[in-house]
Amino acid sequence: MEARKVRCREIAEADIEAVSELLTRGFVGRTRDYWLRGLHRQSEREIPAGCPRYGYLLENGGRPVGVLLLLYTQRIEAGEPTIRCNVSSWYVQPEFRNYATLLTSMAQKNKQVTYVNISPAANTWPIIEAQGFRRYCSGMMFAVPALSRTEPGMRVEIVTAASPAIPGLPPADLDLLRSHADYGCLSLLCRVGDEAMPFIMVPKRIKHGRFPTPGMQLVYCRDTAELVRCAGALGRFLLRRGRPLLIVDANAPIDGLRGVYSETRGRKYFKGPNPPRLADLAETELVLYGP
């Protein structure tokens, strides 16, 4: 095989079918429809100017032999616009692994972008750290929020893609809740008095023992202090829907939540100028592709 036959380029709309087939072969347990759904969602998103819509692929003889998905989004950090990129699913056919660095070098070339990896396999942690990524999340809290106290007068409401303006909720928060409801997430609002606190979650089954336990994974809240404050109301709301557990990114046990903290899973990394905060996985692979 000659090196000149392998090249790295942006994924185009015409590559979607071939890319989905390649990822289906590379990720056991993920169906072709799973990848097509996520790629279709990527095709409809707003992305920052100059950023690739899907990511990059390795091509040999006109066919994809490797792929790295990238999800770009523009954010406001400390009042300033920033760009974040979720470095997502990576697969290269075994016979072309020598060229895999072409993908990673292309994916991390913009020093103004903050890159995040939210689902690294444990065996890749040393490799990711050698590439300059730093850990920002060490594990997960598996909480039973229904065991927390409920603030008097607090109520929980579902926000849909069609929900109208909500008093006390900034338009940016409402837009986030609406867009993620459209992705299939559970967008919730905790209200007490004149306050409105947003939360976004996705269904998750926690594997422990013979029978998986149904739960929810927290995608977004403005601050973990708001989560602790609303935990009782949220927990009872979720319990009525058969979801007793809530999974929350954490670096230690969270005061005010009853549950178990573990570092066996949930590690997350970043590289770039703006360290991510915990409890903000909006517009990532967890949302667009699913857990």
UniProtKB/TrEMBL annotation:
Record the organism: Rhodopseudomonas palustris
Q: Which domain of life is it from?
A: Bacteria
Give GO MF terms, alphabetically: acyltransferase activity
> Which key words tag this protein in UniProt?
Acyltransferase, Transferase
Q: What is this protein called?
A: Acyl-CoA acyltransferase
